[in-house]
Predict the structure.
Amino acid sequence: MRFILSVPLIAVVMVVYTALAINPNFSAGSAFMDWVLPSEAEFFLTLGDIFVMLGLVALFFEIIKSARLGPGTIVDHMLSTATFIIALIVFLLVPPFGTPSFFLLMLMALVDVVAGYTVSIFSARRDYSVNRDGL
């Protein structure tokens, strides 16, 4: 159960993106929905925009997860790092993933890695107290 909670949510978003990207008809730039605003401006969202929004929500929860300390923290960091490395390799080498939307998801994975390690370091530094008086 702990391992399931350690899976990065950004990885889940990337898996859904992958499930759609293996379809040759998939395009991250295809329109998802559009509205005409009261100002009469046309507002439209693409599938890529939807994935970026899902990635931002996932990043929010990942940063909250990184603030807790416990025995599973190291596993969380390792899985987040693996998610980023795999996303980077896929972005660079697999054509359907060379889109601005996947690039932003990859950057969110990088922010997750950096934020996770940073929060853990600051939390560990705060928990570690040293008597500076020499007593």
Summary: Helices lie at 2-6, 9-21, 47-66, 73-93, 100-127. The chain has a mean pLDDT of 85. Residues 66 and 116 are 5 Å apart (CA to CA). The longest strand covers residues 31-36.
